[in-house]
TrEMBL record:
Family: Belongs to the enoyl-CoA hydratase/isomerase family.
Transmembrane annotation, as ranges: none
One biological process term in Gene Ontology: isoprenoid catabolic process
InterPro entries linked to this entry: ClpP/crotonase-like_dom_sf (IPR029045), Enoyl-CoA_hydra/iso (IPR001753), Enoyl-CoA_hydra_C (IPR014748), Enoyl-CoA_Hydratase/Isomerase (IPR051683)
GO function term, MF aspect, one: catalytic activity
UniProt-recorded name of the protein: Enoyl-CoA hydratase
Length: 273
């Protein structure tokens, strides 16, 4: 396992093959600062090639997931002059978060978001790049940028991918807040829990399912899903057939098939606790 870094804005806890990342700025409802963006990017870079980390659980400290961008960073960017030939500080700040969303979206690990309290702006962006999203019943979701006179520049494309253009228009253009049950109906989240105990049970069930699936097959499947709509279907299916043949002849395919015949858990499930 890669040595985890010290972080000022995150709490990192590794349990078995699951890395729990807690956004740890509860005094500002875990608002996304540039330091937090940089630390999250560093962690995802470190674990990208580490087969020991199969799942990443993102949640927030203090009863909230994330209240969006950090206003202190924005105030500092406003106070810095845009020097000739240099990028606008607001551009730099905004694009850094977009790169993080791209990184989390493409991560080979299974990314699970556990949502409570406030999920706004950039927090909602993280939800949209997670593989599984679980929400407490009191959670509230919003894209408030247009009501503040700005735009959800890096977030909007991922919202469209998550819930479709029609619903994204309503959320982004009106800046409305939706509750957990509506978020589930929209496809933002997958499950809603009525209380803390149920939320924890749902999370443990998801992680148990992750352990039952072969690590390499899962990563390759995730990458394949991301390619849908990005290239001609015939080419994609041709390549998918080649990937399937490789998987069938590879060690995971052999072990999975044998385990099924022998009516036992495959090795990756037996050895991963």
């Amino acid at each position: 396992m890669t040595r985890l870094p010290h972080c000022d804005t995150l709490r990192l806890d590794l349990h078995g093959s699951t890395l729990f990342i807690t956004l740890n700025r509860p005094e500002v409802r875990n608002a996304m600062s540039l330091r937090m963006v940089a630390e999250l990017s560093t962690v995802f870079t470190l674990i990208e090639t580490d087969p020991a980390v199969r799942a990443v659980v993102l949640r927030g400290a203090g009863g909230h997931f994330c209240a969006g961008g950090d206003l202190h960073d924005m105030a500092e960017a406003r106070g810095r002059p845009q020097e000739g030939g240099q990028p606008d500080p607001f551009h730099t700040l905004n694009r850094a978060f977009g790169r993080l969303l791209q990184q989390v979206n493409a991560a080979a690990n299974i990314v699970v978001t556990v949502l409570e309290g406030t999920v706004m702006g950039g927090g909602l962006g993280l939800v949209c790049v997670s593989d599984v999203a679980l929400a407490g019943v009191q959670t509230r979701f919003a894209l408030p940028e247009t009501s503040l006179g700005v735009i959800p520049a890096q977030i909007a494309p991922f919202v469209v991918q998550r819930i479709g253009l029609t619903q994204a228009r309503r959320l982004a253009l009106l800046g409305i807040t939706v509750d957990a049950h509506e978020a589930r109906a929209l496809g933002l989240v997958h499950q809603v829990a009525e209380g803390d105990a149920e939320l924890d049970t749902q999370l443990q069930q998801v992680l148990a399912r992750v352990r039952r699936c072969a690590p390499d097959a899962t990563a390759r499947t995730k990458a394949l899903l991301h390619r849908v709509g990005q290239e001609p279907m015939a080419d994609l299916l041709d390549d998918a057939a080649a990937l399937f043949a490789q998987a069938m002849r590879g060690p995971e395919g052999a072990e999975g098939t044998l385990a099924f015949i022998q009516k036992r858990p495959p090795g990756w499930a037996e050895n991963d606790h």
